[in-house]
Design goal:
Layout (H helix, E strand, L loop, with lengths): L3 E4 L1 E3 L7 H6 L9 E5 L8 E2 L9 H6 L17 E8 L5 E3 L3 H6 L8 E8 L4 E6 L5 H10 L6 E5 L5 E4 L5 E3 L3 E8 L5 E4 L15 H7 L15 E4 L2 E8 L4 E15 L5 E13 L4 E5 L3 E4 L4 E15 L1
Antiparallel strand pairs: 1-4, 1-19, 2-3, 3-5, 5-12, 6-13, 7-10, 7-12, 8-9, 8-11, 14-15, 15-16, 16-20, 17-18, 17-19, 17-20
Length: about 325
Protein backbone atom coordinates (compact mmCIF):
# COMPACT_ATOMS: atom_id res chain seq x y z
CA UNK A 1 0.00 0.00 0.00
CA UNK A 2 1.15 3.55 -0.71
CA UNK A 3 2.58 5.38 2.32
CA UNK A 4 0.45 8.42 3.09
CA UNK A 5 2.46 11.66 2.96
CA UNK A 6 0.88 14.08 5.44
CA UNK A 7 0.58 17.86 5.67
CA UNK A 8 0.34 19.26 9.21
CA UNK A 9 -2.33 21.21 11.04
CA UNK A 10 -0.79 24.31 12.67
CA UNK A 11 -1.41 26.03 16.02
CA UNK A 12 -0.43 29.67 16.58
CA UNK A 13 0.03 29.85 20.35
CA UNK A 14 1.71 32.97 21.74
CA UNK A 15 4.84 31.15 22.97
CA UNK A 16 5.78 29.84 19.50
CA UNK A 17 8.79 30.75 17.38
CA UNK A 18 9.75 31.01 13.71
CA UNK A 19 11.30 27.60 12.98
CA UNK A 20 8.09 25.86 11.88
CA UNK A 21 7.17 28.73 9.56
CA UNK A 22 10.55 28.36 7.88
CA UNK A 23 10.38 24.54 7.77
CA UNK A 24 6.95 24.40 6.15
CA UNK A 25 7.10 27.61 4.08
CA UNK A 26 4.36 29.39 6.05
CA UNK A 27 4.23 33.11 5.16
CA UNK A 28 1.82 34.25 7.89
CA UNK A 29 3.22 36.74 10.38
CA UNK A 30 3.35 35.82 14.05
CA UNK A 31 4.52 32.93 16.20
CA UNK A 32 3.91 29.39 15.00
CA UNK A 33 3.95 27.05 17.99
CA UNK A 34 2.90 23.56 16.86
CA UNK A 35 2.65 21.42 13.75
CA UNK A 36 0.32 18.43 14.26
CA UNK A 37 2.10 16.10 11.86
CA UNK A 38 0.12 12.90 12.58
CA UNK A 39 -3.37 13.81 13.72
CA UNK A 40 -6.91 12.48 13.48
CA UNK A 41 -8.07 14.93 16.17
CA UNK A 42 -11.40 16.44 15.18
CA UNK A 43 -10.96 19.84 13.53
CA UNK A 44 -7.16 19.59 13.66
CA UNK A 45 -6.35 16.75 11.29
CA UNK A 46 -3.35 16.09 9.13
CA UNK A 47 -4.17 16.16 5.41
CA UNK A 48 -2.98 13.57 2.90
CA UNK A 49 -0.83 15.08 0.15
CA UNK A 50 -0.39 12.17 -2.25
CA UNK A 51 -2.67 10.16 -4.56
CA UNK A 52 -5.09 8.38 -4.18
CA UNK A 53 -6.22 10.31 -1.06
CA UNK A 54 -4.91 13.77 -1.95
CA UNK A 55 -6.67 16.51 0.02
CA UNK A 56 -8.48 14.16 2.40
CA UNK A 57 -8.18 14.27 6.20
CA UNK A 58 -6.16 11.37 7.55
CA UNK A 59 -9.25 9.86 9.21
CA UNK A 60 -11.04 9.61 5.85
CA UNK A 61 -8.14 7.77 4.25
CA UNK A 62 -7.88 5.41 7.22
CA UNK A 63 -11.61 4.65 7.10
CA UNK A 64 -11.24 3.32 3.56
CA UNK A 65 -8.30 1.03 4.40
CA UNK A 66 -9.56 -2.10 6.15
CA UNK A 67 -7.34 -3.23 9.00
CA UNK A 68 -4.81 -0.46 8.44
CA UNK A 69 -4.42 0.34 12.16
CA UNK A 70 -3.42 -3.23 13.00
CA UNK A 71 -4.47 -5.90 15.45
CA UNK A 72 -3.18 -3.91 18.46
CA UNK A 73 -5.92 -1.32 17.87
CA UNK A 74 -9.50 -2.56 18.52
CA UNK A 75 -11.88 -2.06 15.60
CA UNK A 76 -14.10 0.24 17.65
CA UNK A 77 -11.21 2.36 18.97
CA UNK A 78 -10.35 5.92 18.06
CA UNK A 79 -7.04 6.62 16.36
CA UNK A 80 -4.66 6.11 19.31
CA UNK A 81 -1.84 8.64 18.98
CA UNK A 82 -1.10 12.24 18.02
CA UNK A 83 2.36 13.48 16.99
CA UNK A 84 3.47 17.12 16.98
CA UNK A 85 6.47 19.34 16.42
CA UNK A 86 6.65 22.03 19.12
CA UNK A 87 8.76 25.18 18.79
CA UNK A 88 9.04 26.92 22.17
CA UNK A 89 10.56 30.40 21.83
CA UNK A 90 9.11 31.16 25.27
CA UNK A 91 8.20 28.75 28.09
CA UNK A 92 4.88 26.94 27.96
CA UNK A 93 2.44 27.15 30.84
CA UNK A 94 2.85 24.77 33.77
CA UNK A 95 0.19 22.13 33.24
CA UNK A 96 -0.94 18.58 33.86
CA UNK A 97 -2.93 15.99 31.91
CA UNK A 98 -5.49 13.53 33.28
CA UNK A 99 -5.37 9.75 32.97
CA UNK A 100 -7.97 7.81 30.97
CA UNK A 101 -10.28 7.22 33.94
CA UNK A 102 -10.52 10.90 34.94
CA UNK A 103 -10.80 12.13 31.36
CA UNK A 104 -13.70 9.78 30.57
CA UNK A 105 -15.49 10.68 33.79
CA UNK A 106 -15.33 14.35 32.80
CA UNK A 107 -16.54 14.20 29.23
CA UNK A 108 -13.38 13.20 27.37
CA UNK A 109 -12.32 10.09 25.48
CA UNK A 110 -8.68 9.69 26.48
CA UNK A 111 -6.17 10.87 29.02
CA UNK A 112 -2.79 12.08 27.92
CA UNK A 113 0.55 10.41 28.45
CA UNK A 114 3.25 11.83 26.18
CA UNK A 115 6.90 11.56 25.25
CA UNK A 116 9.20 14.46 24.38
CA UNK A 117 12.18 14.08 22.06
CA UNK A 118 14.46 17.13 21.93
CA UNK A 119 15.11 17.86 18.26
CA UNK A 120 17.17 20.90 19.23
CA UNK A 121 17.96 22.69 22.48
CA UNK A 122 19.51 26.06 23.24
CA UNK A 123 22.30 26.03 25.85
CA UNK A 124 20.76 25.71 29.31
CA UNK A 125 17.28 24.85 28.01
CA UNK A 126 15.21 22.86 30.48
CA UNK A 127 11.84 21.36 31.27
CA UNK A 128 9.86 21.16 34.49
CA UNK A 129 8.97 17.57 35.37
CA UNK A 130 7.09 17.00 38.61
CA UNK A 131 8.02 18.11 42.13
CA UNK A 132 11.35 18.09 43.94
CA UNK A 133 9.69 16.59 47.03
CA UNK A 134 6.31 15.32 48.24
CA UNK A 135 3.85 18.21 48.43
CA UNK A 136 0.53 18.47 50.24
CA UNK A 137 -2.57 19.56 48.38
CA UNK A 138 -2.71 22.71 50.53
CA UNK A 139 0.86 23.70 49.67
CA UNK A 140 0.26 22.97 45.98
CA UNK A 141 -2.83 25.21 45.96
CA UNK A 142 -1.09 27.96 47.96
CA UNK A 143 1.93 28.08 45.65
CA UNK A 144 -0.31 28.29 42.60
CA UNK A 145 -2.09 31.22 44.23
CA UNK A 146 1.02 33.16 45.29
CA UNK A 147 3.08 32.50 42.12
CA UNK A 148 5.84 30.51 43.83
CA UNK A 149 5.06 27.15 42.21
CA UNK A 150 8.29 26.95 40.19
CA UNK A 151 10.33 26.92 43.44
CA UNK A 152 9.24 23.34 44.16
CA UNK A 153 9.34 21.95 40.62
CA UNK A 154 11.96 19.53 39.34
CA UNK A 155 14.04 21.29 36.69
CA UNK A 156 15.67 19.01 34.09
CA UNK A 157 18.16 20.29 31.52
CA UNK A 158 17.64 18.95 28.00
CA UNK A 159 20.06 18.53 25.12
CA UNK A 160 19.38 17.60 21.51
CA UNK A 161 18.65 13.87 21.36
CA UNK A 162 17.33 13.61 24.91
CA UNK A 163 13.86 12.19 25.52
CA UNK A 164 11.58 11.86 28.51
CA UNK A 165 8.23 10.19 29.18
CA UNK A 166 5.61 12.46 30.77
CA UNK A 167 3.01 10.23 32.38
CA UNK A 168 -0.54 11.45 32.95
CA UNK A 169 -0.76 13.20 36.31
CA UNK A 170 2.78 14.63 36.16
CA UNK A 171 3.01 18.42 36.42
CA UNK A 172 5.26 19.68 33.63
CA UNK A 173 6.26 22.46 31.23
CA UNK A 174 8.54 22.91 28.22
CA UNK A 175 11.06 25.70 28.70
CA UNK A 176 12.19 28.32 26.20
CA UNK A 177 14.70 27.37 23.52
CA UNK A 178 13.49 23.81 22.92
CA UNK A 179 12.25 22.23 19.72
CA UNK A 180 10.38 19.08 20.62
CA UNK A 181 8.82 16.14 18.83
CA UNK A 182 5.90 15.06 20.99
CA UNK A 183 4.32 11.61 20.73
CA UNK A 184 1.16 11.40 22.82
CA UNK A 185 -2.22 9.82 23.29
CA UNK A 186 -4.85 11.26 20.94
CA UNK A 187 -6.10 13.84 23.43
CA UNK A 188 -5.98 17.56 24.04
CA UNK A 189 -7.01 17.37 27.72
CA UNK A 190 -4.77 19.94 29.44
CA UNK A 191 -5.19 21.58 32.84
CA UNK A 192 -3.19 24.80 33.07
CA UNK A 193 -2.16 25.89 36.58
CA UNK A 194 0.37 28.71 36.04
CA UNK A 195 1.03 30.89 32.99
CA UNK A 196 3.71 33.35 34.18
CA UNK A 197 1.20 36.23 34.21
CA UNK A 198 0.82 36.27 30.44
CA UNK A 199 -2.21 37.28 28.42
CA UNK A 200 -3.50 35.58 25.28
CA UNK A 201 -3.84 37.02 21.79
CA UNK A 202 -7.14 38.57 22.89
CA UNK A 203 -5.39 40.56 25.63
CA UNK A 204 -6.94 38.53 28.45
CA UNK A 205 -5.28 36.06 30.84
CA UNK A 206 -5.55 32.50 29.58
CA UNK A 207 -7.90 30.22 31.50
CA UNK A 208 -6.56 28.21 34.43
CA UNK A 209 -7.95 24.85 35.57
CA UNK A 210 -7.01 24.72 39.25
CA UNK A 211 -9.70 22.35 40.54
CA UNK A 212 -9.02 19.76 37.85
CA UNK A 213 -5.28 20.03 38.38
CA UNK A 214 -5.67 19.49 42.12
CA UNK A 215 -7.74 16.40 41.32
CA UNK A 216 -5.27 14.71 38.98
CA UNK A 217 -1.74 15.85 39.86
CA UNK A 218 0.60 13.35 41.48
CA UNK A 219 2.22 15.27 44.31
CA UNK A 220 5.25 13.06 44.83
CA UNK A 221 8.49 13.30 42.82
CA UNK A 222 8.29 11.24 39.61
CA UNK A 223 11.02 9.02 38.31
CA UNK A 224 12.49 11.24 35.61
CA UNK A 225 14.72 9.20 33.39
CA UNK A 226 16.09 11.25 30.52
CA UNK A 227 16.38 8.63 27.82
CA UNK A 228 16.75 6.91 25.56
CA UNK A 229 15.54 3.71 27.21
CA UNK A 230 17.52 1.38 24.96
CA UNK A 231 21.03 1.01 23.62
CA UNK A 232 22.05 2.31 20.20
CA UNK A 233 22.87 -0.65 18.01
CA UNK A 234 24.03 -1.23 14.47
CA UNK A 235 21.64 -2.53 11.81
CA UNK A 236 21.99 -2.75 8.05
CA UNK A 237 21.70 0.80 6.77
CA UNK A 238 22.41 2.62 10.03
CA UNK A 239 21.48 2.51 13.73
CA UNK A 240 18.36 1.86 15.83
CA UNK A 241 17.70 3.18 19.34
CA UNK A 242 14.61 2.48 21.44
CA UNK A 243 13.56 5.84 22.89
CA UNK A 244 10.58 4.72 24.95
CA UNK A 245 7.91 2.04 25.18
CA UNK A 246 4.75 2.41 27.26
CA UNK A 247 1.17 1.17 27.22
CA UNK A 248 0.24 3.66 24.49
CA UNK A 249 3.14 3.76 22.00
CA UNK A 250 6.66 2.58 21.23
CA UNK A 251 9.10 5.06 19.69
CA UNK A 252 12.41 4.15 18.05
CA UNK A 253 15.00 6.48 16.55
CA UNK A 254 16.38 5.37 13.18
CA UNK A 255 19.68 6.87 12.03
CA UNK A 256 19.64 6.10 8.34
CA UNK A 257 22.82 6.04 6.28
CA UNK A 258 22.04 3.82 3.32
CA UNK A 259 19.27 1.25 2.90
CA UNK A 260 17.34 -0.09 5.92
CA UNK A 261 14.70 -2.81 5.43
CA UNK A 262 11.76 -3.14 7.81
CA UNK A 263 8.29 -4.72 8.00
CA UNK A 264 4.81 -3.52 8.96
CA UNK A 265 3.66 -6.92 10.22
CA UNK A 266 -0.07 -6.38 10.71
CA UNK A 267 0.06 -5.67 14.44
CA UNK A 268 0.34 -1.89 14.18
CA UNK A 269 0.39 0.94 11.69
CA UNK A 270 3.74 2.76 11.41
CA UNK A 271 4.41 6.49 11.69
CA UNK A 272 7.69 7.76 10.25
CA UNK A 273 8.67 11.37 11.02
CA UNK A 274 11.86 12.81 9.54
CA UNK A 275 13.83 14.88 12.06
CA UNK A 276 16.63 15.77 9.66
CA UNK A 277 18.08 14.74 6.31
CA UNK A 278 16.29 13.24 3.35
CA UNK A 279 15.59 10.01 1.49
CA UNK A 280 12.79 7.86 0.14
CA UNK A 281 10.68 4.89 1.19
CA UNK A 282 9.97 1.93 -1.06
CA UNK A 283 6.99 -0.39 -0.62
CA UNK A 284 5.65 -3.04 -2.95
CA UNK A 285 3.33 -0.43 -4.46
CA UNK A 286 5.15 2.89 -4.50
CA UNK A 287 8.14 5.12 -3.78
CA UNK A 288 7.65 8.26 -1.65
CA UNK A 289 10.33 10.85 -0.92
CA UNK A 290 10.81 12.47 2.49
CA UNK A 291 12.88 15.27 4.03
CA UNK A 292 13.09 17.22 7.29
CA UNK A 293 9.56 17.71 8.62
CA UNK A 294 7.97 14.91 6.58
CA UNK A 295 5.38 12.65 8.20
CA UNK A 296 4.47 9.33 6.62
CA UNK A 297 1.73 6.89 7.64
CA UNK A 298 2.08 3.22 6.70
CA UNK A 299 -0.81 0.82 6.97
CA UNK A 300 -0.31 -2.21 9.19
CA UNK A 301 -0.84 -4.31 6.06
CA UNK A 302 2.07 -2.70 4.18
CA UNK A 303 4.43 -5.63 4.71
CA UNK A 304 8.10 -5.20 3.83
CA UNK A 305 9.43 -1.75 3.05
CA UNK A 306 12.82 -0.10 2.70
CA UNK A 307 14.12 3.28 3.82
CA UNK A 308 16.88 4.77 1.68
CA UNK A 309 18.88 7.92 2.35
CA UNK A 310 20.73 9.91 4.99
CA UNK A 311 18.29 10.93 7.73
CA UNK A 312 17.18 10.78 11.36
CA UNK A 313 13.66 9.35 11.69
CA UNK A 314 11.28 8.70 14.56
CA UNK A 315 9.46 5.39 14.09
CA UNK A 316 6.26 5.02 16.14
CA UNK A 317 3.99 1.99 16.61
CA UNK A 318 1.30 1.08 19.14
Amino acid sequence: MTPLDLSPHFEHYLWGGTYLRSLYGITEIGPLAEAWILSCYEGRQSIVKNIPYHGQPLSSAIASLDGCLGSHVPLSADFPVLIKFIDAADPLSIQVHPDDTYARAHGGSHGKTEMWYAVDAAPGAFIYHGFTHAVSEDEFAARIADGSLTRILNRVEMRAGDCVLIEAGTLHAIGAGLRIAEIQQNSNATYRVFDFGRVGLDGKPRALHIKEALDVTRRIPPICSVGPDGERYVVEGGYRTLLTSCAYFTVTKLELSGRMTMTADGESFVSLVCMSGYGHIETADDVVCFSEGSSLFLSAASGAYALNGDACILHTEV
